[in-house]
């Protein structure tokens, strides 16, 4: 019985010595005042956890269980994005390194974001982080005219997909009574590269091409006898026929 008590006392005496020691702090990647913490027996790793948002980077260091280790998560609400990543190690003071989310998320493009029905996206813009499919920052401007009067417009900034060399174009058509211009521009050379403002390039010069035009609204406008000749301008160099729902 005496031997049993001796072994128990010996175990109680040495168990604190076997507990892991980690550095503990809460701060930023460049300023995190660390202290030494002796971990409880159930926390067997040292952790460095960083999360990043528009408000800045925050770093947390300390003791942890293995369930929290080596995880990366992204929360993107459109108006706000939070990135979180954690790494662990299992020796005393091993979480000494500076740590942030920047290296982990450097491959995600950040773009300016806005949506306006009146071509008046205002600065400062919000920002969003693009997913792996949308690899460009884009501006998309649309304006419509009925009988020479602007009737609808929109301005959108955000993320988009496609090859950059093919991602700058104007889609426009003119039926005589109805005109629509959509201007797309994109970039991916730097975060928030879509910082400028686009304007619809007005087409005023006649290019010598004429087409028949109509815009069907249910009143037989596109019957042959009701179609009108339209003089094409600028880059509008083809006659076209399209069907769709307006």
Give the topology.
Blueprint: H1 2-18, E1 21-27, E2 35-38, E3 45-53, E4 56-64, E5 72-76, E6 81-89, H2 102-105, E7 110-116, E8 126-129, E9 136-146, E10 149-160, E11 168-174, E12 178-187, E13 206-213, E14 228-233
Keywords: Cell membrane, Glycoprotein, Membrane, Secreted, Signal
Domain UPAR/Ly6: 20-108, 109-203
Protein name: UPAR/Ly6 domain-containing protein
Write structural notes for this entry.
This protein folds into two domains: 20-105, CD59; 110-202, CD59 (Ribbon), CATH 2.10.60.10. Mean pLDDT is 78; it is low at 1-16 and 102-106. With 246 residues, it is mostly beta strands. It starts with a helix and ends in a 13-residue tail after the last strand. It has two helices and 14 strands; from the N terminus they run αββββββαββββββββ. A hairpin with a 7-residue loop joins strand 1 (21-27) and strand 2. A six-stranded antiparallel β-sheet has the order 2-1-4-3-6-5.
State the shape: rod-shaped
Number of helices: 2
Ends apart, CA distance between termini: 92 Å
User: Helix coverage percent of residues?
Assistant: under 10%
Unreliable segments of 5+ consecutive residues? 1-16, 102-106
Major sheet, described briefly?
6 strands, antiparallel
Order of helices and strands: HEEEEEEHEEEEEEEE
Compute the number of strand runs: 14
Q: From the 3D structure, determine the CATH topology of the largest domain.
A: CD59
CATH architecture tag of the largest domain: Ribbon
CATH superfamily annotation of the largest domain? CD59
> Which structural category do the helix and sheet elements fall into?
mainly beta
* Mean pLDDT across every amino acid position: 78
Protein name: UPAR/Ly6 domain-containing protein
Subcellular location: Cell membrane; Secreted
Domain UPAR/Ly6: 20-108, 109-203
InterPro entries: CNF-like_PLA2_Inhibitor (IPR050918), LY6_UPA_recep-like (IPR016054), Snake_toxin-like_sf (IPR045860), Toxin/TOLIP (IPR035076)
């Amino acid at each position: 019985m005496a031997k049993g008590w001796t072994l128990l006392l010996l175990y109680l005496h040495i168990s604190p010595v076997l507990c892991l020691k980690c550095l503990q702090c809460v701060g930023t990647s460049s300023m995190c005042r660390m202290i030494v913490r002796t971990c409880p027996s159930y926390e067997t790793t040292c952790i460095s956890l960083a999360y990043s948002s528009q408000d800045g980077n925050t770093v947390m260091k300390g003791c942890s269980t293995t369930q929290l280790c080596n995880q990366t998560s992204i929360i993107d609400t459109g108006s706000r994005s939070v990135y979180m990543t954690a790494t662990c190690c299992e020796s005393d003071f091993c979480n000494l390194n500076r740590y942030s989310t920047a290296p982990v998320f450097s491959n995600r493009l950040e773009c300016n974001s806005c949506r306006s029905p009146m071509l008046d996206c205002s600065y400062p813009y919000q920002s969003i982080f693009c997913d792996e499919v949308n690899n460009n920052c884009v501006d998309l401007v649309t304006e419509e005219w009925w009988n020479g009067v602007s009737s609808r417009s929109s301005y959108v900034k955000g993320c988009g997909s496609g090859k950059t060399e093919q991602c700058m174009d104007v889609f426009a058509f003119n039926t005589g009574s109805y005109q629509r211009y959509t201007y797309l521009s994109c970039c991916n050379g730097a975060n928030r590269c879509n910082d400028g403002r686009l304007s619809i390039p007005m087409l005023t010069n006649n290019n010598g091409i004429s087409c028949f035009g109509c815009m069907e609204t249910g009143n037989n406008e596109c019957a042959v006898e009701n179609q009108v000749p339209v003089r094409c301008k600028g880059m509008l160099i083809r006659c076209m026929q399209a069907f769709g729902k307006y």
